[in-house]
Amino acid sequence: MPRRVAVISVHTSPLAQPGTGDAGGMNVYVLQTALHMARRGVEVEIFTRATSSSDPPVVRVAPGVLVRNVVAGPFEGLDKYDLPTQLCAFTAGVLRAEATHEPGYYDVVHSHYWLSGQVGWLARDRWAVPLVHTAHTLAAVKNAALADGDAPEPPLRAVGEQQVVDEADRLVVNTEDEAQQLITLHNADSRRIDVVYPGVDLATFTPGDKRAARAALGLSDHERVVAFVGRIQPLKAPDVLLRAAAKLPDVRVLVAGGPSGTGLAAPDALVALAAELGISDRVTFLPPQSRDQLVTVYRAVDMVAVPSYSESFGLVAVEAQSCGTPVVAAAVGGLPVAVADGVSGSLVPNHEAGQWADAIADLLERDPVGLSRAAVAHAQQFSWDNTVDGLLASYAKAITDYASARRRRAADDLLARRNGRRWSRRRGVRA
Fold it and tell me: Can you give the pTM of this predicted structure?
C-alpha cells in the first residue's frame, strides 16, 4: 500500500459542483476515491488548476486529503481546449510543491484525463515514481458518436492521449469495454490495464419517502416524472428525452443541471426546444444540485434518463438506482454495466425519439416496487470501497513493477560499466 498518492486533475477541481462547467462524474470520482483512501491511512494530495483569485493555495478537505490549487493562466474565461497552453505553468507549480518535501515524498502519481496525463508523465520522470492514468473519455470514441451540432475533439487531444497511453505504467479503466477501446484505438498493452468500476456513496444515496421528496420539489403525487441529471450539452443528449416526452402526454420532465461544453454557446437551447415541442408546461428546470439535493431528486421521480451519446460509465445511473429509481439509458460505453437491462432499467440501442418514448412507457408500466428493489440490489455492487480496493491493487502493481524495472536498469548499467572497464584494460586504456 502506498503511503502517499499525488492525484492530478488539471481541468476541473474535485471541489467544483457537478453539473456546472466541466464538472461531472470525474469530479465525484476523484474526491470520493481520495476520501476513502485516506480512511485507510493513505494520504492523497490533489493538484488542480485554480479558477478564481479567491481559491486558497491549499484546501484540507478531510484528514489525509489536500487539494492544491495551482495558478496557471487566467483564473476565468479559459476554455478547456485552451488548457494545453498552460500545461507548462501548471507542471511548474506541481513540481515546486513537491520540491518543498524530502525526496520520495509521493509513492505514485495518478492522473485523470489526458491533460493531467501530460503533467503526470513529467512528474513521474522527475520524482522516479510510477504513473497510473485514467482517461475517463477518449477523443476517438467521442468523435465516433457525435451528436448533431456538436464539435469534434481536436487532433491535438488524440495525439496527447496516445502519448500518455504509451508512457503510463498502468492504465485504469472503468469497464471492460473501455479496456478494449484502449487496446484497439491506442495499441495499449492489455497487461498494463486494470478494470476498476466506479462507485456510489451507498450511505447517502438511499431509498426514501417519495411523497416528501415530491413536496420538496413542488411536484404533485399523481404525475409521472422522468429526470435528466447532468451537464446540458449535446454529448449528454437531454434533447432526446424532451423529444420522447413530447410523444408521452402524461409524462413530466425534470432537468437538473447547467450548460457545459458546446452547450455554453446556446445556454437556453433546451428551454427553446421545450417551447418548440409544446411541452414547456411539462418541463421543470433546476440548477445543478448538491449531493443531498440530488437524493431528493432521485427519490421524487419515477425514472432517470441517461441518453448520452458517449459515457465512460454513468455515475448518475448508479446513484439513481441506489435510491431505488430505475434508469432508462443509451446502450453506449459503460452504461450497459451501470444498468442491468430488463432488471434495474432499460437500455435503448439508439437515440431515436420514438424508441425512447416506447422504452419510457414500457418501464413506467412495470411493477414499481419490484423495479425499485432490483435497482437497489444492482447498485450495491458499486461501492467506493470496492473501487479503492481496485485502485490500491493497481498502485501496488505499478510500484512493484516500477521498482523491478529500476533494479534491472541499474544492474544493466553496472554490467555495462564493468564490461567497459575490462575492454579498456585489455587495450591499455585507463578507465
Answer: 0.90
Distance CA 119, CA 91 (A): 6
For residue range 79-137, what is the model confidence (pLDDT) as tens digits?
A: 778 899 999 999 999 999 999 999 899 999 999 999 999 999 999 999 999 999 999 99
Sequence letter at residue 418 = R
Close Cβ partners of 118 (under 8 Å, ≥ 6 residues apart): 84, 87, 91, 160, 163, 164
| CA 120-126-129 angle, 5° bins | 70
Q: In whole angstroms, what is the distance from residue 375 CA to residue 404 CA?
A: 44
Whether 168 contacts 395, CB under 8 Å: no
Helix and strand numbers, DSSP H then E, in the chain: 15, 14
Give the 3-state secondary structure of residue 242. helix
Q: Give the tens place of pLDDT for each residue, 241-253.
A: 999 999 999 999 9
Whole-number pLDDT of residue 300? 98
Between the CA of residue 13 and those of 69, 70, 199, 230, 356, what are the distances in Å? 8, 11, 19, 16, 34
What are the beta bridge partners of residue 133? 111, 171
Which residue type does 293 have?
Q
Q: How far apart are CA 116 and CA 95, in angstroms?
A: 14
What are the C-alpha distances in Å from 360 to residues 199, 229, 306? 26, 16, 12
- Nearest in space to 233 (alpha carbons), one of 77, 18, 19, 16: 19
- Burial (CB count <10 Å: 0-12, 13-18, 19+), residue 159: exposed
CA 137/CA 178 separation, integer angstroms: 9
Asked whether the CA dihedral 402, 406, 411, 416 is positive or negative, the reply is positive
